[in-house]
Structure formats: C-alpha cells, structure tokens
Amino acid sequence: MQTVDSGANPTSWFARGVWAVLLLLALGTLGLMWWWDTEPDYFDPVEVARQRASLNNQRVVVGSATTTALVHSAKIMLDKRGGYLSNDKLPPGVIMDNMPNWEFGVVTASRDLTRALRNEFSRSQTQSVEDKDLQEAEPLFSSPNDRWLLPSSESQYRKAIERIENYADRLADDDLDDAQFYARADNLADYLSVVSTRLGSLSQRLSASVGQTRIDTDLANDGNAQQSRPAPGERMVKTPWSKIDDNFYEARGYTWALREQLEALRVDFAPVLGDKNALVSLEQVIRELEEAQGPIHSPMVLNGTPFGFFANHSLVLANYISRANAALIDLRELLRRG
Fold first, then answer.
1. Cβ pair 206, 306 in contact under 8 A
2. In this structure, how many other beta carbons lie within 10 angstroms of the beta carbon of residue 152?
3. How far is CA 158 from CA 30, 78, 140, 143, 166, in A?
4. Is residue 198 within 8 Å of residue 254, measured between CB atoms?
5. Which terminus, N or C, of the chain has the lesser number of Cβ atoms within 10 Å?
6. Percent helix, strand and coil across the chain, each rounded to 5?
7. Is the Cβ–Cβ distance between 278 and 286 less than 8 Å?
8. Residue 126 and residue 56: Cα distance in Å, rounded?
9. At what angle do helices 64-79 and 98-116 cross, to 10 degrees?
10. How far apart are the first and last CA of the chain?
C-alpha cells in the first residue's frame, strides 16, 4: 500500500509560508497601530523658548513664547511616533483614524494662531504693513491636511514653520525696524473670539453624540435679522456612529495645542492680563483644557447614554470644553473693558 507524504508537498509548504507571512504582517501592523496611537505629552513653551534663544545667542522678548508654542506644537505633530499620518496611503497609517483626527485638531489651532500673528499680533493697526514671513506662513498652514504629493502636507507645514521661525528670529535681533509683536488687550481679545467659536463648535458636535433636539435660535434677539433659507423651529441632531471618535480626537488635538498656546500667551501678555485683573480667568481656561486631556482608560471611545451604565467620553469632553469656553468669554469681557 502506497503512502503519500503530505509534508513534502510543495504547494502545502508554500501555502503555509504565505499564511505565516500574512500573520506576521498583520501582527506587525497591529503593533505599529498600537505604538503610533499615542497622544504626545505637554511641553513648557517658555522653557523651550529659553533653550532656543540660548542656542541661537538671542534674547527672549515679547512674542518669543507664543511663536515657540506654535512652532514646537507643529513640530511635535509632524515628528511624533509614526510621523504625520493624515496623508498616509499604506498600512498602518491608512487604516488609522484617531491620530489623523488629532492631527487635524492641532492643524486647526496652528492655523488660527498663525492668522492671528499675521493680522493682529504683528501689526500695530489695520493700515500697517503685514510681516513678510507671516504673510507666507498662513497660506502654507492652510494647505489641505491630507495631500500626499506635489506638494505633500508635511512639506507645506514645515515651510510654514520655517517662516514663523524667521519671524521669531527677527523679533529677537537688534534691528529696531524689523519684526514686532504687539501685546495689547484688543488683539488678544480678537484672537480669543476666534478660539471661542472653535470651542463652541467642538462642544456642540461632541454633545450631539447621543442625539439632541435643538431649537433654532440663529435669529434670536434681532427682529430684522434674516437668513438665506428657512430653518425648522426644532430639529434632531445626532452624530453618526462612525464620526463619534473622529470628533472626539479632533477636539483632543485642538485642546492640546490650544493649551500650549495659552500658556505662552499668559507670559507674553502678563502685564496686560495683570492690568485687567484677568490672569486668574486665563488660568481657569488652561485648567479646564488640562482636564480635557485626561487619560482614556478604555480601548475605544465609549458612547453610552447620558445617565446610563456605560460612560460617554464625548459628553465628558464636551463638558470640559464648555467650561473652558465659559471662562474664555469672561476673559474676553475683562480684556475689552477700559
């Protein structure tokens, strides 16, 4: 009776080899996803500004902390574990969505501060000339966040960082007619107004994770106000389940970068904040943003009912953001008072 040695079958060995390679690739991909899916820690923008000034033999001047916070947070976004993931076309980056949304939140905060530097902080009045480096940095940061080639998002953002670093270098040089940073109450209030609208939008999107019936108040308090098309008096707003973690991590990225920016602004605008008795209000905003960055002790973003058995991470984050926004509104009112 003839026996068949299946172990010597080349096809069988080839199939086993293919499955082994696929298994190793899958395990490697999962390992990289776990390693890359980590949010960066805080940094001290004031200390980083001092180190940069010492390295370049420069002075720490008004505006150094703010520009450093913008530059360093953008560099961390680009150079963190796995690099910049939003435009990846290959695994594991292409199948990840938490960190790409976190990156988009950081990009949004960077765009807002760059625009404020260009239009507010670097100009003494509306008729003054724009700074040349900031004029180029803003459109570079406004490049699409998911462009892969010609040019890639990373290359555009790195060019923007270079322009802002050039501006920071000119702030600290001895040329009195060079770049300026004006720490005034009015331009800080204008920037915080933009931040407040961002926080309000994020809070609303996060709160919609469980569904809400919202009343249309768009034209409230103005009898002559109009809008382009009629809107229902009440409507149900609910975030699709596939977008819940997207909104959550975008908010985490934005609040992480904003916290660093406000820490720097607290130093650069210290005399103004002290004069307006507004320093405590800013510290309260920063405290709420820090609470919004608490560690997540769950492998996924939970979306339980508001008073149910399971947690709802979106509602928790929305609460901290709403409290930060409320403190920010109080801060703006203090800054606008004479």
1. no
2. 15
3. 29, 8, 9, 11, 12
4. yes
5. N
6. 60, 5, 35
7. no
8. 32
9. 160
10. 105
Q: Is the pLDDT confidence value at 165 over 50?
A: yes
Structural tokens at position 210: 């469980």
Tokens for 293, please give them: 């960055």
Contacts of 228 (CB under 8 A, 6+ apart): none
Residue 214 in this model has a pLDDT that exceeds 80: no
Domain boundary assignment for the chain: 37-215+234-336
- pLDDT digits 0-9 by tens, 287-310: 999 999 998 888 888 888 777 778
Provide the 3-class DSSP secondary structure of residue 285.
helix
Of 258, 267, 259, residue with least CA distance to 47: 267
- Contact present, 265 and 66 (Cβ < 8 Å): yes
pTM: 0.89
Give the chain's length.
338
φ/ψ (deg, to 5) at 237: -120, 125
